[in-house]
From TrEMBL:
Protein name from the UniProt record: SusD/RagB family nutrient-binding outer membrane lipoprotein
Gene3D superfamilies referenced in this protein's UniProt entry, alphabetically: 1.25.40.390
Transmembrane parts of this sequence: 7-23
Protein origin, superkingdom: Bacteria
Keywords: Lipoprotein, Membrane, Transmembrane, Transmembrane helix
This protein's record includes keyword Transmembrane: yes
Protein's organism: Zhouia spongiae
A Pfam family matched in the record: SusD-like_2
Length: 491
């Protein structure tokens, strides 16, 4: 009997091994045909991931350590405060930001562009939508560092380019404008079914909103070139007038982060690093009776709004009673607070600036300026009667003297909570004015108290891609934080 069972078990074992051998042969055949054993890549999932990375990039360390301070929006506690002293000893952070910007938005969106750009998976509508996200991703990196890998950038995976050449910011900006123009042309008459239904976390595949978004970004880029190439800037702005803009808060490019603890500013307000709102921001809102004060700034323990001075040296900071200062407003820093990459208010103010300086139409500029303020207040659900009262105040109309400063200051406020763009705006326009630090309790850093103008290429980038980085530095200027990027020519 035992022998009988042994025979049966042997037969069963042999059958199992035979099936396994056949299965393994089939699997090996699959691998020979496709070494990665992947039959298709879901570009919709990659697109969604790239979009989310773009929005989360408005809260990363390029913001909470650097541009949020440089834009004089807030002061972070602990070691996150140190860049507020205008130093440059942050090699590891510079490298993390550089690689992180490419590793997030750019890596995913380049894959989408590869998939949708040619072959059996080509899709002009999806490509156009993805290209708009790519433009914003590359714009942030070049605004942060200046010259960057662009034509060959982000293609380590798709094209095996591991030491990409650097392109001039002038070339990058003009190509970004061209890409937006092409996307607008495609999406204006496109079939929404060919887009990303169910995978668009911003506009839910509403192509009219995507066209408005792309044209508004084009306006932002065009106006950013105002001092670097005025003729080209005028051409771009004129071109933008032929297409619709973002005009109401229903057009805002916004997203709610639902994963983890939600909006990252919630962690910064309640945990680490602690964030206190800037005295410059708080004073501006208080002095003009701006109803956004209670939106952007929380009351302190004494029921007051008390901002924190940017740039204090260590001794002065130790005496500043940092913990008692006003936190970031809960509308900006709750778990479900919205993240923004662009809003309609910004567009109205850009149009006001263009009408004032390009068209010499002060009345039209004032109309756009007032529309910008009204839209900005409405973005934060401020009561209509409160809005009406503020619109009747002197702040809500251009005075004919210092109009550019008025527009610039309101645009600075409208960028909140996209603080990185606020820093870029100050670099471009000089508004609001950030004076050179001369007071003894303020740190002058390595810039002699002048607002930093860029991030540094890290030692890793200098060693791993030495020839191309060195070439970029030779064109752009010294690898220092007070070396201006190409478009920053408003002296």
């Amino acid at each position: 009997m035992k022998n009988k069972y042994r025979i049966i078990n042997s037969i069963i074992t042999a059958l199992i091994l035979g099936f396994m051998a056949i299965s393994c042969d089939n699997h090996l055949d699959d691998l020979r045909e496709n070494p990665n054993a992947v039959t298709a890549i879901d570009d919709a999932a990659l697109f969604t991931k790239a979009v989310r990375s773009l929005f989360l990039g408005t809260t990363d360390q390029s913001v909470y350590r650097f541009s949020g301070h440089y834009g004089h929006y807030f002061v972070a506690g602990s070691t996150a405060r140190i860049p507020d002293q205008y130093g440059d000893g942050f090699d590891a952070q510079y490298n993390e930001m550089f690689t992180g910007m490419y590793g997030g938005v750019i890596r995913h969106i380049e894959e989408v562009l590869e998939i949708t750009g040619s072959g059996d998976t080509a899709n002009k509508v999806r490509y156009a939508m993805a290209d708009i996200i790519a433009v914003l991703g590359y714009a942030k990196i070049t605004d942060a560092f200046g010259e960057i890998p662009y034509v060959e950038g982000g293609k380590g995976k798709t094209q095996d380019i591991m030491q990409p050449k650097y392109d001039t910011q002038e070339f990058i900006y003009k190509d970004l404008v061209a890409r937006l123009t092409e996307s607008i042309e495609i999406l204006t008459s496109a079939n929404p079914a060919l887009g990303y239904p169910g995978s668009d976390p911003v506009f839910d595949n509403d192509l009219d909103k995507w066209v408005r978004f792309a044209n508004s970004i084009r306006l932002r880029l065009g106006m950013r070139l105002r001092y670097a190439d005025n003729t080209y800037s005028r051409t771009v702005v004129s071109q933008c007038l032929n297409d619709p803009f973002m005009e109401t808060n229903l057009h805002n490019a916004t997203m709610i982060q639902t994963e983890g603890n939600g909006n990252p500013w919630y962690n910064y307000r309640t945990g680490f690093p602690s964030i206190k709102m800037s005295a410059k921001l708080t004073d501006q809102l208080q002095q003009t009776g701006d109803p956004r004060l209670s939106v952007f700034v929380s009351i302190d323990g004494n029921g007051n709004y008390t901002g924190m001075t940017n740039g204090l040296n260590d001794a002065a900071f130790g005496n500043s009673d940092f913990a008692a200062r006003s936190d970031m407003g809960t509308a900006l820093s709750s778990r479900d607070s919205e993240l923004y990459v662009m809003n309609a208010a910004e567009v109205w103010f850009l149009r006001a600036e263009a009408a004032l300086v390009y068209d010499q139409e002060p009345a039209e500029a004032n109309d756009y300026y007032r529309k910008g303020i009204e839209t900005a207040l409405g973005q934060w659900n401020i009561a209509s009667d409160v809005i009406a009262d503020f619109m009747a105040s002197p702040t809500a109309s251009l005075t004919g003297s210092g109009d550019e400063e008025q527009i610039g200051t309101q645009l600075w406020l409208a960028f909140i909570p996209n603080y990185f763009e606020g820093w870029s705006h100050i670099r471009r326009t000089g508004y609001p004015e950030i004076a050179q630090r001369t007071e003894p309790d303020l740190a002058k850093g390595v810039t002699n108290g002048i607002l930093p103008k860029r991030f540094l290429y890290s030692s890793f980038e200098l060693s791993s891609n030495s020839d191309h980085v060195t070439e970029a530095i030779s064109r752009q200027g010294d690898n220092k934080i007070d070396t201006a990027v190409w478009w920053d020519q408003n002296d």
